[in-house]
């Protein structure tokens, strides 16, 4: 029962580590109720990119432990030790590959031009917004993180009628 519990715990840890996101439509709790710096800009171009997955070691450890446990149950004591070591190595390689693939994200590289003429490139996960050349956008910087969002539409002020 202890081996099964350990295996399930490690599998759950790997699954939870894949839940991290950089989606621009999701605000982290620590960023809520914080003032951000805003800059007006215009989109020059936008292209899809892939953000490489993480290799924190959690997948390798989980895979290694799972492989070792599974391999150690094969045959007698000596065979179980040998197969357990081989299972640990194979499990670590597979676990690392699974972690990397499951944490990969589709993203956009958005190149913008600020009002002062400077150009910037921002890579962010794909959200609900699309960005085309010429679109007015706002760069929202909180701490060291910057995201791009569509500029809000401002309604023109009502014309003065001259009546008092």
From TrEMBL:
**Entries under InterPro entries matching the protein:** Gly_zipper_2TM_dom (IPR008816)
Q: Which residues form the signal peptide?
A: 1-20
Q: Locate the Glycine zipper 2TM domain: which residues?
A: 59-99
Tree of life domain? Bacteria
Keywords of the record, alphabetical order, are:
Signal
Instruction: Quote the PROSITE patterns the UniProt record gives.
Output: PROKAR_LIPOPROTEIN
- Record's protein name: Glycine zipper 2TM domain-containing protein
* Originating species: Pelomonas margarita
